[in-house]
Design brief:
Pfam families: DFP. By secondary structure, the protein is an alpha/beta fold. It folds into two domains: 1-101 and 172-254, 3-Layer(aba) Sandwich (Rossmann fold), CATH 3.40.50.10300; 255-359, no CATH class. The chain is 31% helix and 21% strand. The protein has nine helices and 16 strands. It has helices at residues 13-19, 26-42, 74-85, 129-132, 152-171, 182-196, 244-251, 269-280, 340-357; strands spanning 47-52, 56-58, 66-68, 89-95, 117-119, 148-150, 174-179, 203-207, 214-215, 238-239, 256-263, 284-289, 296-302, 308-311, 314-317, 321-327. Strand 2 and strand 3 (66-68) form a beta hairpin. The radius of gyration is 24 Å and the shape is globular. The structure holds ligand PMT. Residues 51, 71-75, 207-211, 213, 240, 243-244, 259-262, 288, 293 line the site of ligand PMT.
Length: 359
């Protein structure tokens, strides 16, 4: 790629996978997912694929610069915990280093765990700042063995997080797979979806990842770092194929599929969510606006095609889509805040059950 524009191309999902490189770890990742699904099938569990975090679009092959999509992974990581709590097995397909179930409570940026650890007061403290550092050349003290404890204020919360974390690990119901680029995400989504098709209606998709709409095909990437000496940089990107289409119609037509719609203008949230349902024919779109997403979301779903009701003796057709708003108080106590994901998952589980029974 030089510092000029290029003819863009339209990729279908099919042509995308024919022309864009398969990630080196795809085979191993798919095998891991395959084994996980087999174990969950034997245990007769429903499985949900939770996608989480933002995808990147590299601008160079030896990547120095890339475009990123906004998402910390809070929605995905929090939701995964509520699915696990409800007895679901979770495949957590997430952006590397974004928030994860359980450890999210101790994010290094908002609640670093070192802040609530204490060293036994009986131990001699360091006399100088230099000797306090582990990089000091002195050998580490061997006796007495240092005792580290959790501050009293944090103990109850840590205990409940740790207990849930250990229980999930003992049960083996959480499987983690990570991506960085949109290309890795798309290949993984296809591979995992195909693996999940053996579950039929017991498979749920909860697509909370923020996926790039535009990308640069591998064939047009500059090998080395784009040089700044040539003046302005113009890049013409191609559209990422709409991957929900083959997911719904080919990879797992039986699956219960929930996608998200993020907008910054609340006025267009519902029309855009309805448009997605119209286009892809899946089960639910969760609309959230950027500034209120932690306190208010709307679930949009299609109403059965023949839904009509009688009003004053006349048959009146129902609206095509139903809205279901979920809202929680935006002022939550800091020690035990209510999380909107709890209510979202509760509602989705009811609908998934109906979906399973509908088979
Ligand atoms: O992680 P947080 O900081 O908590 O933020 C959560 C969130 C706001 C990112 C999340 O709640 C959310 O809204 N995610 C979807 C963002 C979005 O608008 O995605 P989209 O318009 O690019 O895609 C719509 C849907 O299709 C999404 O479910 C997406 O995962 C899926 N998609 C999109 C494109 C594509 N090629 N493949 C997809 O699967």
């Amino acid at each position: 790629m030089s510092n000029t524009t290029h003819e863009s191309q339209t990729f279908s999902a099919e042509s995308y996978f024919e022309t864009q490189p398969q990630p080196p770890s795809l085979v191993a990742d798919t095998e891991g997912v395959h084994e996980f699904i087999q174990r969950q099938q034997q245990a007769n569990r429903s499985v949900v694929l939770v996608t989480s975090g933002g995808t990147t679009v590299p601008l160079e092959l030896n990547v120095v610069r890339f475009l990123d999509n906004f998402s910390a992974g809070t929605r995905g990581a929090t939701s995964a915990e509520y699915f696990l709590k409800a007895g679901y097995a979770v495949i957590f397909l997430h952006r590397q280093f974004s928030l994860q179930p359980f450890s999210r409570h101790y994010s290094h940026s908002t609640n670093p765990f070192l802040n609530f650890l204490e060293i036994d007061a009986a131990l001699p403290s360091s006399s100088t700042i230099d000797s306090a550092f582990p990089y000091s050349n002195d050998p580490p003290p061997t006796t007495p063995t240092p005792q580290i404890t959790v501050t009293t204020a944090e103990r109850a919360k840590l205990f409940s997080v740790l207990r849930a974390y250990k229980a999930v690990h003992a049960l083996g119901t959480l499987h983690m797979v990570s991506f960085v680029t949109v290309n890795e995400y798309l290949w993984l989504l296809r591979a995992v979806s195909r693996e999940m098709s053996v579950l039929g209606r017991k498979a749920m998709y909860y697509l909370a990842a923020a996926v790039s709409d535009f990308f640069l095909p591998q064939q047009r990437l500059s090998e080395h770092k784009i040089q700044s000496g040539k003046g302005n940089l113009s890049i013409e990107m191609d559209q990422v194929p709409k991957i929900l289409k083959p997911l719904v119609s080919e990879w797992n037509p039986e699956g219960f599929i929930v996608s998200f719609k993020l907008e910054t203008d609340e006025m267009i949230l519902i029309p855009k969510a309805q448009q997605a349902l119209e286009r892809y024919g899946h089960q639910v779109v969760i609309g959230n606006d950027l500034h209120h997403r932690k306190h208010r979301v709307v679930l949009i779903s299609p109403v059965a095609a023949d839904a009509t009701k009688k009003l004053d003796g006349a048959l009146v057709s129902q609206p095509k889509y139903a809205e279901f708003w979920i809202e929680i108080d935006s002022h939550q106590p800091s020690n035990h805040p209510k999380e909107i994901e709890e209510d979202i998952i509760e509602e989705l589980l009811k609908r998934h059950n109906v979906w399973i029974e509908g088979s």
